[in-house]
Amino acid sequence: MTKKMTTKVTIEAVIFDLDGVVVYTDEYHSRGWRRLCDDQGWRFPEEVSDQLRGVSRMESLQIILDSNGVSATGEEKEEMAHRKNEYYKTYLQEVDESALVPGAVDCIRELRRRGVLIGLGSASKNALTVLRGLGIEELFDQAVTGLDITRSKPDPQVFTLGGQRLGVSPERCAVFEDAVSGVEAANAAGMISVGFGPTQGLDQAGADLLVPDYAWLDIDAFLAGTLWS
Ligand code: G6P
Ligand code: MG
Questions:
Q1: Ligand 1 nearest-atom number relative to CA 182
Q2: 54 lines ligand 1 (CB under 6 A)
Q3: Which residue range forms the structural domain that includes residue 56?
Q4: Domain at 137, CATH number
Q5: pLDDT by residue (tens digit) across 179-213?
Q6: What is the pLDDT of residues 60-74, one digit of tens each?
Q7: Beta strands across the sheet bearing 117-121
Q8: What burial letters (b/e) apply to 185-202, b meaning 16+ CB within 10 Å?
Q9: Of 74, 92, 110, which residue constitutes the final position of a domain?
Q10: pTM of the model
Q11: Ligand 1 within 6 A of CB of 49
Q12: Are 35 and 49 within one domain?
């Protein structure tokens, strides 16, 4: 049991990761990397795909290079990261409401109705494009994206900055994350970490609460702190 679970918490803000928590764009990121790997004749196993959750574009490429035992020059890396992003942006054109994680928008609306502030905390430089494309940008009081940060999850920067912009102290912020690196980042920020979805290892990463899906989540119990008492 973590120290957060032993004390009563008041949640004033919830910061959502984007890919895999609000929208299933995590699958489009994977498709983009898989296509790049196919181009290059490299392997892209499922466990490597999971390791890329929450990780910046260049760091993701490095993980793929390392897992294939391949090295590349800075220029080659720039080109490959750019190529993957072009693939990803092509896939984004297909994204519509069917790509929303079921219950995510309702959950955010319910939280807002109860006066909870909503933030976005994503490592993606494409995050605002995704929100705008789906017409859900206005659900977020503040958004911190890959364009605002210099350090990737598990560094807490994305969430610390989000809490500051929302004007809420860390212990009153909860973070919804599908990535091991994201749960670690939320914990490092001193926030309540909610491990969302089926990713392996969220428990071991120290998630304060595991939420398999939004249908499972009782929002009143969550805000009252009784889900982890
Ligand atoms: C999120 C995703 C990662 C992605 C990263 C950067 O954290 O979970 O899979 O690599 O954003 O995304 P970008 O759109 O900037 O390449
Ligand atoms: Mg994610």
A1: 7
A2: yes
A3: 26-92
A4: 3.40.50.1000
A5: 999 999 999 999 999 999 998 999 999 999 999 99
A6: 999 999 999 999 999
A7: 142-144, 117-121, 13-16, 173-177, 192-196, 209-211
A8: bbbbbebbbbbbbebeeb
A9: 92
A10: 0.94
A11: no
A12: yes
